[in-house]
Write a structure and sequence with these properties.
This protein is mainly α. It has one domain. It is 78% helix and 0% strand. The protein has 14 helices and no strands. The radius of gyration is 18 Å and the shape is globular.
């Protein structure tokens, strides 16, 4: 089967689809956490995803190298850290504040890239970053921001997410992007299981709804999402990736409206418009 050839425009569209899928993950995580502890949820989510994808790509796994496993181990650790911080932070922080703080990834990506790689982003992209951040604030921040342990953990999640994007950009230039995406799932699951055995009592989903949510996280958000992320990211830039992923809260608000009958305020709709405008502007400038 021939490989899919991606232009930057197609890669950006694929990343936008991933942002839409991940926008639905907040609902599924909330349902799953009613019966499954956080670290064990990470294990189930990424473990099921790895088994599924590995089964579909058995022949390609033979091309795995020690160098690739080393890079995957680091990406898996960052992926585990993203969700470990997020799930723990959401226990003491309201959803709107957590969504705003985690979405600051869009700002951390170019800032960390400038710091670690000495690559100063263009003024246009920096302007889009801050325009996006303003839109996210209007979309999700409905209450006064409170700085507590949960808020700090959500910021840590955003930093880990930004580091994961940057490290993915580095690793895909050195090894196979598809295999990198597959093996990072295995390592994230392993870290989740280890943390669960050390810090909590593992528990499987108790209802069909919980199992459905876990499978949604595993199949769509993880097996499809985190495997294709490095494939798409190989054809675009880290800053661009961070900008497109900022569409997540927009899609999250849409799913909340469709399935929970939650209406956006005028402020929320204006924020969503700002996010969409800034992402489209960045895509047009990069085309």
């Amino acid at each position: 089967m021939k490989s899919i050839v991606l232009t930057q425009r197609r890669a950006d569209w694929l990343l936008a689809v991933l942002a839409m899928i991940w926008g639905s993950s907040y609902l599924w995580m909330k349902i799953s956490l009613t019966g499954v502890p956080p670290f064990f949820l990470i294990f189930l989510r990424f473990g099921i995803a790895f088994v599924l994808v590995a089964g579909l790509c058995r022949s390609r796994l033979r091309q795995t190298t020690k160098r690739l496993l080393k890079g995957s181990a680091l990406l898996g650790l960052l992926l585990f850290a993203v969700f470990a911080c997020l799930l723990q932070g959401m226990e003491t922080t309201n959803a709107s504040t957590a969504g705003f703080l985690v979405s600051t990834t869009v700002v951390f990506v170019p800032l960390l890239q400038a710091l670690l790689q000495q690559q100063r982003p263009s003024r246009t992209l920096m302007g889009c970053c801050f325009l996006t951040l303003t839109g996210i604030a209007m979309l999700t921040l409905q209450e006064q921001l409170s700085w507590n342990t949960g808020a700090l953990l959500c910021i840590a999640s955003a930093v880990c997410y930004a580091l994961q994007i940057l490290e993915t950009d580095r690793e895909i230039r050195l090894t196979n992007a598809l295999l990198l995406g597959i093996w990072q799932l295995a390592f994230a699951a392993g870290y989740g299981l280890l943390a669960s055995l050390c810090f909590e009592t593992p528990a499987f989903p108790a209802t069909g709804l919980q199992w459905g949510s876990v499978l949604g996280l595993a199949v769509l958000c993880s097996a499809f999402g985190f495997v294709l992320q490095p494939v798409a990211q190989a054809h675009t830039t880290p800053t661009h990736t961070g900008l497109i992923f900022s569409l997540e809260p927009v899609f999250s608000a849409l799913f909340a409206f469709l399935f929970l009958q939650e209406w956006l305020s005028l402020q929320g709709w204006l924020g969503a418009a700002l996010v969409l405008t800034s992402v489209l502007l960045a895509a047009r400038r990069a085309a």
